[in-house]
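Tokens help. Our protein:
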Amino acid sequence: MRKTVLSLTMLLFAICAAAQGNDYYLPMTGIEFTFEIERRGPIDRTEYSFVSVRTSLFGVPDESKHYEAVIDNSNSIDYICKDEHGVLLGVNKKVKQPEQEKAKDIMERKSSEPDVVEISVIYIPVKEVKRVPLCNLLYDQGVFIGEGEPENTYYLTIKDNHDIYSPQATVKMSKAGKDNPNIYVNLPGKATMILEKGKNFLSSQELYLAQFGRVEAVDSKFFAKNSKYSLELNPTTGEIKMLK
């Protein structure tokens, strides 16, 4: 059984460099749903059916979280590292992000042999949602974004658990001030994601979303003039991945 790939939206990938400029964004978290679709039958009468679905998370710049790091002789920050979209990845550390494979165009069927294609649907939640239609399938036409016949539509529910991630006790946060180098991080919030097909429950998963949490400034002592710390952030949520 052959497999080809189609993305209904452009896949984002990050290449880290010590980007010019001191300004940066913290990320908001998006969800990518990859649906496997089987095609079978005669070429001129292709029939489609859902096979499976999987999810993955990615980060995009949050326009409401735009900051400027203070890089001067009063602190120990040599540079900040951002992805190509301006999202902060590290401080005093070059963070290399693996490139995601670009989606291939869906291949036209050339034989009646069954095959499987992948359809990518991206959703970026900004608040709780209940049974948002992601996509639907018509057995003789294929997959379409949005709602169709309810029994052949995938629905998404996001519940805010109102539980904010807490970093390690040794990583102290502080309010920004004149002595603060303006290095901010996300404390993402926990949410529950529920996926249904029609009225049938498929899965429930807890995940952290940057936009369901809050922003804090890293304590200025970590980047004081006589200190030498480096920071790495999770590119999906903007939380502290490493500070040493």
Q: What stands out?
A: Confidence is low (pLDDT under 50) at residues 1-19. The chain is about 0% helix and 55% strand. The longest strand covers residues 47-68. Residues 79 and 92 are 5 Å apart (CA to CA).
